[in-house]
Amino acid sequence: MTALDAAAPRTRKLVEVDCKSWQTTSISTVKCARVQTKFQTFIFLEGEQSFWLDGTFFHVDAGHGETLRPKALTFVLTRETDIRLLRGSSQPLRKISLTSPISWMEELRIDQTACHREVTHFLSGHLNHLLWEPGPEVLGLCKQIQSPPSWLEGEMRELYLSARGLDILMLVCQRISQAHKPVADTTLGQQGQMERVRDYLLAHLDDDLNISRVARDTGTSVRSLQRKFRDQFGETVFDYVRQARLFRAREALLRDGISVSEAATLAGYSRIGGFSAAFKRQFGECPSDTRLKL
């Protein structure tokens, strides 16, 4: 390498493509990191993962075997952000990650007047996010990323992966545009409405929630809420709440060393026995064992 090469600025890729697979993930892992600004999409082909970005909790479950239902999460970080990754399962986890700079439209020199307003708005907000189900076109591109032609090497392989990543990026932007288009009446579209319900649930984990109150406070009907929430997130409202409370209690055990009885209260259980049984079903170990890892 010459002195000129060393001094030359490194050119960022428009989209970084990363494909990873784990047969199992450690239930004792709590990974903390500081991540830079980015526009990111995780496509979960199998398995589940839970993590916090700043104060926002995410849980994505793509299932296994007969329950397999790939999910994708797209989000924006406009500032350096703390991520706390809680992952742990005896089941496989397979996912593809696509990462772009939040300024990618500027780097493409796209005329701002030609940009889709919904995409521009999405990119401008810290922790704007969209949970969606990838269709056959996206899954086909993922399969190509997982198994590129064996004869491709070096820069040819990188070009191949980048091209597939750009194809997915275009489809991601289409989903953002469709999900955030304004509707004729004053309500949000189904996806945006259910995201608002999810945010409401996470903000009221300490409250004594019931389905009527959730429906009233989020501007929907009980019947519509139950059906649409399950369609979008793959689980009932209160399965989601129960799981979020358990993850919050587990994090407090690992991070703060609170007592098991305090963790039970944090998770919404009046009896330690019921909490311990639910905790073990979720994480594969007793809460007292988790606390010892502090």
UniProtKB/TrEMBL annotation:
Top-level taxonomic group: Bacteria
Pfam families, sorted: HTH_18
Domain HTH araC/xylS-type: 195-293
InterPro entries to which the protein is assigned, alphabetical: Homeodomain-like_sf (IPR009057), HTH_AraC (IPR018060), PchR_regulatory_protein (IPR053142)
SMART domains: HTH_ARAC
Keywords: Transcription, Transcription regulation
Name of this protein: Helix-turn-helix transcriptional regulator
Provenance organism: Roseibium aestuarii
